Amino acid sequence: MAASSSLWARLRIAGASLRLSRGATQFYSTSSSSTAAPSPQATFTRQFVFRLLGLATWLPVAIWFNSTVVEVTRIEGPSMYPFLNSRFNETLERDWVVNRKLYAQEGLQRGMIVFLKSPAHPEVVSVKRIIALEGDVVQTKKPYPTPYVRIPAGHMWVEGDAGVGKSLDSNTYGPVSIGLITGQLTHILLPFSKAGRVRWWEFPVEDRTSAVMP
Q: How does it sit in the membrane (predicted)?
């Protein structure tokens, strides 16, 4: 009897342990399944906030890059015809180009095409070709009052390719400070027929410079 009672007691203890174990498992399972999935609206709001934060992070970088390093811009007007806006007179089609602003005032050479603040209208950015650099004596065109002028230090002589009467350039306002340069034209993007690096040195430009005054 003692052996039987002991066996019975052991069976009762084992049964109680099993019930407790099942109860704990059931409680854990119920707790786990009670976590609700986020609603589609909450998911959309969270994604929208993340994207907005990403835009807020990159927008100042993009603005800085556009104003300091490189800018894509459209050429207005016919003053650089026929090198730029070659179809302007036919279709008013304008060229889209790359304006490199970083180190814009370095490595300047005769024949280069640069962007600069117009001495006549400082709020306007013009695009012109460098004809002469400091120390050069350049033969001018009308309406400049003297036939020759020596370019002073820190200045240059710029003109539009379209010629007299179609370009407001140094023949009107004289030598221009290099400090007015805001960029160099490096590539043409549109039209596709002209797309590529600007090879300004291949464009025929009349050399009207000399080292001495005539």
A: Single-pass membrane protein
What residue ranges in 60-124 does DSSP mark as E strands?
Answer: 70-74, 96-100, 113-117
Q: Name the H helices within the chain.
A: 2-33, 40-68, 88-91, 170-173
pLDDT at 182 over 50: yes
**Of 105, 161, 163, nearest to 134 (Cα)?**
105
Please state whether 148 falls in left (phi above 0), alpha (psi between -120 and 50) or beta: beta
Q: Tokens in use for 97?
A: 């180009």
Point out the residues that are catalytic. Answer: 79, 128
Quick one: average pLDDT of 154-175? 94
Q: What's the pTM value of the predicted model, to 2 decimals?
A: 0.72
In CATH terms, the fold of domain 68-210 is Umud Fragment, subunit A (2.10.109)
Q: Calculate ∠ Cα 40-41-42, nearest 5°.
A: 90
Residue at token pair 């003692």: 2
Q: Of the candidates 41, 67, 95, which has an alpha carbon nearest to the alpha carbon of residue 183?
A: 67
- State whether residue 211 is helix, strand or coil: coil
